[in-house]
Specification:
Blueprint (H helix, E strand, L loop, with lengths): L8 E2 L9 E9 L5 E5 L4 E8 L1 E6 L2 E6 L2 E5 L5 E5 L6 E8 L3 H6 L9 E3 L3 H15 L6 H15 L12 H16 L6 H8 L3 H12 L3 H19 L4 H7 L5 H12 L3 H9 L1
Antiparallel strand pairs: 1-2, 2-9, 3-8, 4-7, 4-9, 5-6, 5-8, 7-10
Helix pairs in contact: 2-3, 4-6, 4-7, 7-9
Length: 276
């Protein structure tokens, strides 16, 4: 029988306002091993190294395997179980903080889309190993620990870390579409232009893009523009007209309306809030 190995560390003494760590660990699960249903008052991300299992939340069931993972949000009922024949081995990190919601808004992860996939398995494993090593020492390794966590989240919360898609041409089309959007978001970009660039049908592109990312191409463009605008508002002294133009909006009023719809506050109010 396989050995179940736990690595657990409590970070209750580490008080980082932006990102507070609770615990992390790894487990080689036994067949059928399950957790929940239960709710938590913090965020928790599981990443699967091997095997497979089933994640249940929000009335939906996701079957996940190596290179995939799932997000559990505060106060959301969740239940997950290892496969009976090929049980998963996964690692996890539990955290909270004032900036977590903002990070999630800039990613493809949400309560509506709580799963992701990544092709950077070795890098993610190295992040967890770094966290585990840091916890074996005292709090002088706090920066090392937080650095590993931020590195992990930078990969997991990247909009390019998408839910599971079928292999082959479909995935390549979506990857190419995302790359084109990220290089041309400041232009007058349309779904028709994107489809023409990839030499595929517009309706087909919209379908495979939505199936893969959880967003339509147009929704993804808008979200990417707003994320970029958010960065410029916080990190630059550009005027709102200049920021609007920089992210593809010729009409500053249209930009302001869209920003408020997506980010929850008008651009100027958003800048003032971040200064406080």
């Amino acid at each position: 029988m396989d050995i179940v190995q736990y690595q657990f560390s409590n970070f209750s003494k580490i008080h980082n306002v932006d990102l507070k760590l609770y615990y992390c660990g790894t487990e080689q699960c036994l067949p059928g091993h399950e957790v929940g249903p239960m709710v938590r008052d913090y965020y928790k991300i599981h990443y699967i190294h091997s095997g497979k299992g089933h994640f249940h939340t929000g009335g939906r069931t996701y079957t996940l395997g190596k290179g995939q993972g799932f997000l559990i949000s505060p106060e959301k009922l969740a239940h997950y179980q290892a496969d009976d024949e090929a049980p998963w081995t996964y690692s996890w990190i539990a955290f909270n903080g004032m900036q977590v919601e903002r990070y999630l808004k800039r990613s493809s992860l949400s309560n509506e889309q709580p799963v992701f996939s990544s092709n950077r398995d070795e890098y993610i494993q190295s992040c967890f190993l770094e966290m585990f090593k840091a916890t074996e020492h005292n709090l002088t390794d706090e920066l090392r620990l937080l650095g590993a966590l931020y590195s992990f989240l930078s990969v997991i919360l990247d909009p390019a870390s998408m839910p599971v898609t079928s292999p082959g041409a479909r995935g390549q089309y979506v990857e190419q579409a995302i790359a084109f959007i990220e290089h041309n978001y400041a232009t007058d970009l349309s779904v028709e232009q994107l489809a023409a660039r990839l030499k595929i049908n517009r309706k087909y592109l919209s379908k495979i893009f939505k199936d893969t990312t959880g967003f339509t191409p147009q929704q993804y463009v808008i979200q990417y523009r707003m994320n970029r605008a958010s960065e410029l508002i916080q990190k630059s002294s550009l005027s709102m007209n200049e920021i609007a133009c920089s992210v593809g909006y010729k009409d500053p009023f249209q930009f302001s309306r869209m920003f408020k719809k997506v980010m929850g506050a008008a651009p100027r109010d958003y800048r003032n809030e971040k200064k406080e």
